[in-house]
Amino acid sequence: MAILLKNIKQLLQVREATVDKVSGKDMKHLPKIDNAFLLMENGVISDFGPMSQLPESKNFEEIDCTGRFVLPSWCDSHTHIVYAGNREQEFVDRINGLSYEEIANKGGGIVNSAEKLQQTSIEDLYQQSAKRLEQVMALGTGAVEIKSGYGLTTEAELKMLKVIKQLKDKYNIPIKATFLGAHAVPKEFKGNKKGYLKLIAEEMLPKIAELQLADYIDIFCEKGYFDLDDTNYILSAGKSHGLTPKVHVNQFNSIGGVKASVDQGALSVDHLEVMTAEDIDALKNATTMPVALPSCSLFLSIPYTPARKLIDAGLPLALATDFNPGSTPSGNMNLVVSLASIKMNMTPEEAINAATINGAYAMGLSNEVGSITKGKKANIILTNPIPSYGYLPYSFGENCIASVFVNGKIL
Ligand code: NIG
Ligand code: FE
């Protein structure tokens, strides 16, 4: 049945279908309608407007939203929610003084997660991952990208991507899959990075393409992981199989990966905690979306992406969680939006734009989600009665969400 939300205090992020992202000064603007209604039919947003234009009541289920805000669901364009077990011991090791790098060098980190995942059955991996997906959906995430990269063998990478496919089949929010075979060099290839890259390009990629298990190709372009040559090699290989690049870059060091990714036509460059003037220049006039992951910065105590520098240079910016067992064991986009305002000096308008419309762009879902637009999926958030939308980032740690709708149905 059609659902009508009426007497909405403010309907946020109302956009024409032609707007696929917002940049620079425009990010300060969050288009809205006061005292509004929203109609959801057949899974999509079918109508909306001021209450004065409320359509003649048909067979609607009506929900009174007095004092509440409605906005599109969060679009989380960067996650690793398919993983096995957790790494809380490394968390304790870091509390006791070891660095993320030191832990990785002694066999912890990504390869630790890979060992766990290789020993986990596909059924168990699915169950663990489905639980996380349900958890983030309840927190208002209505579209998500999920990466492989904790397998690091052909079999285990395929296992991860098959789990992502199962999640796509079971859950009715848009899910995009990214192949991140080049996340770390596995133990078996220690001292033979080139051999591992060859395995990715010549064995993993053809199989993944044949089974149509991925939309995007990713690599961890970073000192101690993969360099610029590796990045160009893997992104080119991915593209030859129809996968568009989305790249982990500039988390700890700037080594030219931003420009390389832009030159490769990347849809997004993600992390960007360390940004030089050259990196920012490389993003100007590009179609690549910069993506910040502030809960990773919080958890690892590393710098936050210099959002002001990027936005003030006229660039767009998206926000995502990076939900993963090592650097960000949280998939809470509400916290991400708060951190963006608190730690990155983004206004509430900028943070909400970055977590909705720009997030949708960063995973190629602008046509389906990210704004209140007729015909887009009715994946929306209804807040509790709150004083203003600025209260969302302000009241960090408080749950302001009353209900989440997916395809026009209450979750
Ligand atoms: O995006 N930086 C690379 N990959 C993940 C973390 C990997 C891990 O520690 O498990 C990230 O932060
Ligand atoms: Fe990541």
UniProtKB/TrEMBL annotation:
Gene Ontology molecular function: any one: zinc ion binding
CC terms in the record's Gene Ontology section: cytoplasm
Gene Ontology process terms (BP): L-histidine catabolic process to glutamate and formamide; L-histidine catabolic process to glutamate and formate
Domain Amidohydrolase-related positions: 160-411
Metabolic or biological pathway, per its Swiss-Prot or TrEMBL entry: Amino-acid degradation; L-histidine degradation into L-glutamate; N-formimidoyl-L-glutamate from L-histidine: step 3/3
Cofactor(s) for this UniProt protein: Zn(2+); Fe(3+)
Alphabetical keyword list: Cytoplasm, Histidine metabolism, Hydrolase, Iron, Metal-binding, Zinc
Cofactor: binding details: Binds 1 zinc or iron ion per subunit.
Ranges that cross the membrane: none
A Pfam family: Amidohydro_1
Family the entry assigns: Belongs to the metallo-dependent hydrolases superfamily. HutI family.
Purpose: Catalyzes the hydrolytic cleavage of the carbon-nitrogen bond in imidazolone-5-propanoate to yield N-formimidoyl-L-glutamate. It is the third step in the universal histidine degradation pathway.
Database matches in NCBIfam families: hutI
Name of protein: Imidazolonepropionase
Organism, scientific name: Croceibacter atlanticus (strain ATCC BAA-628 / JCM 21780 / CIP 108009 / IAM 15332 / KCTC 12090 / HTCC2559)
